[in-house]
């Protein structure tokens, strides 16, 4: 067990506390838990990259912890009518689709790394969740614009991974005798 893996496990351990605090509308506590959880994500990635303890456990569990943590926040917020369920379905569908693509590609010896769209998607989702926890009325223009931007970038990010994978595995058609 190393520090990045312990941070990843701590994020998973925070999931039920995040869900309970959100479902009890304890907004300050929920925001604190969410921000601490996201800080563990930043720290585990930084430590693993700069100090080298990248493990197979971390490669597997870090993305699962991220999706579980942010996904729990979105589902809880939708259950409390702070974000439309359709938006959450789009966001979670993208996560499942890209995770499936990565698994499929890995089994074929192809690694699909995070791209700029994926990093922007993550940053926007974190900002959106924090904003949905913090604001009193999530249906004001500002929050709605952020939700729309997050949803659009989430969709574009998913498309980007599939287009990139398809382009990297393009097979030239056989030429036909002329």
Provide an overview of this structure.
- The chain has 178 residues and is mostly helical.
- The longest helix has 28 residues, at 141-168.
- 78% of the residues lie in helices and 0% in strands.
- The model has no long low-confidence stretch (mean pLDDT 91).
- α2 packs antiparallel against α3 and α3 packs antiparallel against α4 (85-106).
- The chain has one domain (3-168): CDP-alcohol phosphotransferase transmembrane (TM) domain (Four Helix Bundle (Hemerythrin (Met), subunit A), Up-down Bundle).
- It contains 6 helices and no strands.
| Content of β-strand | under 5%
- Radius of gyration, in Å, reads 18 Å
| CATH level 3 topology | Four Helix Bundle (Hemerythrin (Met), subunit A)
What's the story with the biggest beta sheet?
Answer: none
Give the overall shape, derived from the CA principal axes: globular
Order of helices and strands: HHHHHH
- Oligomerization status of the protein chains: single chain
Task: Write out the CATH superfamily name.
Answer: CDP-alcohol phosphotransferase transmembrane (TM) domain
Q: Runs with pLDDT <50, length 5+?
A: none
For the residues shown, what is the average pLDDT?
A: 91
The number of helical segments is 6
| Topology, number of strands | 0
**Total domain modules:** 1
């Amino acid at each position: 067990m190393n520090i990045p893996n312990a941070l990843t496990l701590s994020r998973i351990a925070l999931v039920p506390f995040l869900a309970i605090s959100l479902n009890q509308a304890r907004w300050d506590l929920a925001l604190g838990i969410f921000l601490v959880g996201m800080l563990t994500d930043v720290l585990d990635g930084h430590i693993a990259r700069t100090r080298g303890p990248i493990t197979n456990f971390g490669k597997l569990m870090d993305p699962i912890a991220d999706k579980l943590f942010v996904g729990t926040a979105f589902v809880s917020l939708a259950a409390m009518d702070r974000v439309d369920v359709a938006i959450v379905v789009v966001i979670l569908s993208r996560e499942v689709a890209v995770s499936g693509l990565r698994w499929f590609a890995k089994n074929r010896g192809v690694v699909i790394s995070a791209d700029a769209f994926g990093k922007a998607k993550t940053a926007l989702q974190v900002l959106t969740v924090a904003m949905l926890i913090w604001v009193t009325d999530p249906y004001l223009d500002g929050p709605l614009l952020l939700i729309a931007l997050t949803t659009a970038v989430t969709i574009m990010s998913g498309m980007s991974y599939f287009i990139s994978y398809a382009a990297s595995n393009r097979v030239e058609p056989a030429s036909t005798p002329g």
